[in-house]
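Running low. Got one?
___
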Amino acid sequence: MFSRISQVARHLSRPAPNYLHNSAASGLSATTSRAMAAERSKRTINTAACLIIGDEVLGGKTVDTNSAWFAKYCFSMGINLKRVEVIADDESEIIEAAKRMSSTYDFVVTSGGIGPTHDDITYQSIAKAYDLPLVLHDAAYERMKRLSKPHPSQKDFSYDVDSPARRAKLRMIELPYDKNLADEDQVIFAADDLWVPINVVNGNIHILPGIPRLFEKMLTGLKPRILPRLTDPEGKGVYRVLFSTPLAESEVAGYLTELSSKVEGKGVKVGSYPRWGKSRNTVTLVGRDQEFMDSLIPEVEQGVKGRRIQTEGEDDDAGSDKDT
């Protein structure tokens, strides 16, 4: 019986077929869709989501570090990262996840699937999601020719001669593009020495490569465009206070429950993190009201029989495992 119920639940939780997505989109006029995308590209950013795309991540060949870096990026600016997903290089999955995230969160970043090979299908999938053509972007092409050097194995490569290698390279700058929207809202060059653009679709989906050094550099370059759209335009981010405690989680749980209830109304979250194999565990306060949080430090130090620290592990010493 349980098995049959589980099968039904899985069936009901599956993404809607593409034709249902398309029919929903077709209910809006092209003019309305463009207006919504334009508005979405300017709205205040409170929430974010990260979509990691790649069979190599799911297969264990590559370790995803981009989502962790993006989490720190969001935290530093006070953006509430609400969701991280890892999906396959599968058109239907990319379409479903991109549309769902775009409609739910203010700032969406995708990572991966924009290379020159057959399995790099992020651009074509997101173009299909929003019924957009793939357009060879002239400025990106000029930058590619100027900044991208052929691989040593491609001694005879030329941008002026059609070849399989040239066609493969051009796939990386054939972008989902709406000719009715401003170019600067769809294609962003985050650094002078990079030809890879940040392609923005539906106003808030930012398509980035999966290579960590490029992912990080491009988002860093995007930051000046993000800051004015934050609740706090100075981008001071969220304030975090760390405490080191010699107590086991089970020992400090009662106090932390009381503390959490006390500070919830001030927008402060209390966290507890066991550190397996270490003599001390970590307690955190996270919020925006720095003055209020600082006023709690003596109380929390007493409650957890520990002290405030700047970096986790800075006061480690020899000791046995603590329970979790």
The first strand starts at residue 47 and ends at 53. Confidence is low (pLDDT under 50) at residues 1-26, 318-324.
